[in-house]
Amino acid sequence: VFTLESPATNTDRTLVLPDEAGTVLTTAGVPASAMPAGSVLQVVHGAYTSQQTLSPGSSWAEVTGLSATITPSSATSKILVSASINASGSTSNYVVTFRLYRNGSYIEVSPNNSLRPGTFITIGAQQWNNYFRYQATGVYLDSPASTSSLTYKLYTRDTRDNGVVFINSGYYDENGASNPVGYSSITLMEIAA
After folding, report:
1. How many CA atoms lie within 13 A of 181 on its CB side?
2. φ/ψ (deg, to 5) at 96
3. Rounded-to-integer distance, Cα 62 and Cα 104, Å
4. Fewer Cβ atoms within 10 Å of its own Cβ: the N or the C terminal residue of the chain?
5. 3-state secondary structure of 184
6. Has this prediction a pTM greater than 0.85?
7. Interval 99-131: pLDDT, tens
């Protein structure tokens, strides 16, 4: 049964249907399948304000606590990953490098070869007093071709000296106005294709 009901009004009303194919907007909203390419279908945000010290050496260590999970509504959707990380290293010339992972698998955002490691975010510094810390960002448009749950995380290491990596803090981390609490985050946006 299909029922078309007129509004409760004493005034004459005219409803003009468009002379084109498409979906009529209702109070239920527009289905994701009807959204034009480039539309943002959903947003997921993960924030991390704790401080973390990692000693991965020559391996890659997960930045635990910093992640976001999204379930795409369509296998053709893209996932726009945006991450902002507050970090520093422990040596006088560090290159703190971050890689992007999806469901535990490394995503090769930039070329990776035997001479140069691939990276998503890189913080490089020559410091004289081990106080320097940085806020760096990275953006990547992923094509997972999936409607399953996807969890994005960051892994890190000092690719120059295999030194210690500090998240949301610096080498000298003491209470005081000169050592504010850092903020790191990761945001996922499903983009209609």
Report:
1. 4
2. -80, 120
3. 10
4. N
5. strand
6. no
7. 999 999 999 998 877 777 788 999 987 766 656
